[in-house]
Please model this.
Amino acid sequence: MAFAEKLIAVRRANNLTQEQLAAKLYVTRQAVSRWERGEVTPGIDMMKLIAAVTGEPLSHLLEMPEHYCQSCGMILTPDDYGTDATGATTDHYCKWCYDHGKYTYDTTMEAMIEDCAPRLAQNTGMSLDEAVSLMGAVLPQLERWRSVHENEERYGAEARARYGDEAIDAANEALLDMDPETWNDMKELERAILGQLSIAMGDGDPKSNEARKLVAMHRRWIGLNWGHEPQDEAYLGLANGYLADQRFVDYYDNPCGTGATAFLVQAIESSLTRA
Model:
């Protein structure tokens, strides 16, 4: 679907007229009309503003190819595919970023943009500033970078204030270095924890065998996120912090029922007391 068609669909989905969307974007109605007729296409910075105003992911607004590297964002052809742990090709990553189930080199998203943006500009004819802006918008949505970006946006300031920059940087590095298979295992464990929390709550006893199983699963999941098994004091501090933050309460209570977060904290406290 071309950008013009996507914009019309997104605008209508948000119940906006051309004039109302134009007001939110600080442009004229005529500009929106020209975009929707396909006469011109807005620049990347305006695309980012449209995405922010409508809540539509930028990658959906852009005419992204079917296959592109989930690390650097380059368009993939079969000759460019990386390989998974078994040596089979994967259309999720390019061979320069990913080989035999592992990232080929350690880097940061900022360094990736600095390295790749000049080549993107050269190959597409856009300016270097436009290439940097585009990659800065797209890379945070890619598999390799998405979790770290989302965590920093939601919890970064508070987490750094509580645990320090060094600890958070180490946790981010562990996530960035995590191969997709381990990542998938971690996400499956995350879903399993919510199921086990519901089971343990059904028993109603934070000291039960089901509660102990819940804590073991949860502690392992935290260890995968942090890159190391948490010490008792840090783990207890994390758990108590859940109750003070409505976002965490919603995360556990919404799928598992009111009181789920408090039950999890009680189970963790009971587990550490026995230890």
